[in-house]
Specification:
Elements lengths: L16 H27 L4 E9 L7 E2 L5 E5 L4 E5 L8 E5 L7 E6 L5 E5 L4 E5 L8 E6 L11 E6 L5 E5 L4 E8 L2 E9 L9 E6 L5 E5 L6 E4 L5 E5 L1 E2 L5 E2 L5 E3 L5 E5 L4 E5 L8 E5 L1 E2 L5 E2 L2 E7 L3 E6 L4 E7 L68 E6 L5 E3 L4 E8 L5 E12 L2 E6 L4 E5 L7 E2 L1 E2 L2 E6 L7 E11 L13 E6 L1
Parallel strand pairs: 18-19, 24-25, 30-39
Antiparallel strand pairs: 1-28, 2-3, 3-4, 4-5, 6-7, 7-8, 8-9, 10-11, 11-12, 12-13, 14-15, 15-16, 16-17, 20-21, 21-22, 22-23, 26-27, 27-28, 29-31, 31-37, 32-33, 32-35, 32-38, 33-34, 36-37, 38-39
Length: about 525
């Protein structure tokens, strides 16, 4: 049976040629993306792409990956956990750890801090190790054989959440036990039985979804998956026993992907199955595999683990290998289609400047300013002020020196400088008005005449400064007299010729003898 979905749940400059090419690509790619999205909607399946063997000649327990995409392979009866590099670096062997400490590493998990936990079926314990980048140092051991809290009976898959807590499925005790690791040990939190309503068989796999609820599998043929709430209360079954799509035959390892969808190692059917989230009713999305040893084949796959880049690793136990798949990534850009800003378009950077969850490569308004890309002279920046509606930030000056209330000696003259900004259009020029108040009248400095000229206090006389983004103006000591001076500035934008609106002094200083 499938669970029901949860109810919670004006001046317009022509764009540059480079932008025109990008917009044309956007239009073509958008059509392709629509076609791909329509195809997915029709068949309701997730695309799996076989990428070959990542690790060969191993007898893997239940594998795990870390945030860097490295693969952790517990070697059954080998007494160690082998670490392999990520896909980009060719899965080269990096190190192994646990020698002399582990008897039978049945499963491994890595938390968000990089700490590693190993379930040892030979000793009925869980071993704690530090991050790979710190040498995977041994931190401590928890448990021993028994049925009490803190003891284990036939540990199988070990999983973790973001708290981080760890969870162990116990085959012999028929339960899932939760622990909170800290300082080389772990605090026993709770345990819940999985046999109700029975029979359920041997518990083998456990995964935690985005709601901190549990999915549990049984390797006993004739059983389906079970879903439990965060307190261990039984909610319902997922799927039914059988060989048809969406059915199971003795499934073992489980995993949830970054958005909480469920991936299942369907051991008895020699395949991997993919299901929606709880909110999506755990609806069947797709599968890959059949019995065999070649491309697209599995032999009793026992576990799986997702990795960054829309990758999925499967422990193909019968074929003694770990296989790499790409899943839900039709455009092969390393982002699963469910979270891809531009599904169907290769956009590995996944940039989204305006945060509207639509990637820049397919967004018709990249900066989210309400002006479409073809009419937006600055399509990559959202302006705070845009008086002429060209999509660009209006020009502005800042950091004017000398700063207000500054006292300047007359003998040094006036050295005025500052910065200007005019978005991607750039600054054409900067205008500066330097005025000296005398009684009720004002004098304004003229760069051409190199002296102050009488004028209206309400109408500053502007002169062009040297430079643009970094500008300056120098007034010699001969032209300066003691008194109070006010400095006004205006930046002029290129192309649009828009002039900064300036109505107040940027700086007020006093020249002294």
């Amino acid at each position: 049976m499938l669970l029901a979905p949860n109810s919670d749940i004006r001046v317009r400059p022509r764009p540059h040629s480079r932008l025109r090419v990008r917009l044309l690509a956007f239009a073509v790619a958008s059509i392709a993306a629509f076609a791909i999205a329509a195809a997915h909607a029709q068949n309701g399946s997730a695309a799996f792409q076989w990428e070959g063997t990542a690790v060969a000649a191993v007898n893997p327990g239940m594998i795990a990956t870390d945030g860097a995409g490295r693969i952790y392979v517990p070697l059954r009866h080998g007494g160690v956990v082998q670490v392999y590099d990520n896909a980009r670096n060719g899965h080269r062997p990096l190190t192994n750890f646990g020698s002399g400490l582990i008897q039978d590493p049945v499963s491994v998990t890595v938390d968000i801090r990089g700490n590693t936990y190993v379930a040892d079926a030979g000793r009925n314990v869980v071993l704690l190790f530090g991050p790979y980048i710190s040498g995977s140092s041994y931190l401590g051991t928890v448990g021993g054989p028994g049925t009490a809290l803190g003891q284990f009976g036939g540990p199988r898959q070990i999983a973790n959440d973001n708290d981080p807590r760890i969870y162990v499925a116990e085959a012999l005790n028929g339960r899932v036990q939760a622990l909170a690791p800290a300082r080389g040990s772990a605090t026993n939190l709770f345990a819940f039985g999985v046999a109700y309503p029975g029979p359920f068989g041997v518990a083998s796999g456990v995964a935690v979804d985005a709601r901190s609820n549990f999915i549990v599998s049984s390797e006993t043929p004739g059983t389906s998956l079970r879903y439990f709430d965060s307190r261990g209360g039984f909610v319902g079954g997922i799927g039914t026993p059988g060989a048809a799509p969406g059915q199971f035959n003795g499934p073992r390892g489980l995993a949830t992907d970054p958005i909480g969808r469920l991936l299942v190692a369907d051991t008895g059917n020699h395949r991997v199955s993919f299901f929606n989230t709880f909110a999506g009713g755990f609806g069947f999305l797709g599968q890959i595999g059949s019995a065999g040893a070649g491309v697209g084949n599995f032999n009793a796959p026992g576990s799986l683990a997702t990795a960054p880049g829309a990758l999925l690793y499967v422990a193909d136990n019968g074929n003694q290998r770990v296989v790499r798949l790409r899943y839900d990534d039709a455009d092969r850009d390393g982002a699963i289609d469910a979270t891809d800003g531009c599904p169907g378009i290769f956009n590995p950077n996944q940039t989204d400047r305006d945060g509207d969850r639509r990637g820049d490569d397919c967004d018709d308004d990249i900066d989210g300013d309400g002006i479409g890309n073809p009419a937006d002279a600055c399509p990559f920046t959202k302006p705070f002020d845009d008086r002429n509606s060209d999509g660009c930030q209006d020009p502005t000056t800042s950091s004017v020196k000398p700063k207000s209330k500054k006292k300047v000696k007359r003998s040094r003259g006036l050295k005025i400088s500052g910065r200007a900004y005019a978005d991607r259009l750039g600054v054409a020029r900067v205008l500066v008005a330097v005025g000296r108040r005398e009684a009720r009248k004002c004098s304004w400095y003229s760069v051409k005449r190199k002296r102050f000229l009488r004028g209206s206090c309400k109408r500053p006389r502007y002169s062009r400064a040297r430079g643009t983004r970094r500008w300056r103006m120098k007034i010699s000591a001969k032209s300066v007299r003691p008194g109070r001076y006010r400095i006004y500035t205006k930046a002029v934008q290129k192309r649009s010729r828009l002039v900064e609106k300036s109505t107040r002094a940027r700086s007020t200083i006093r020249v002294v003898r």
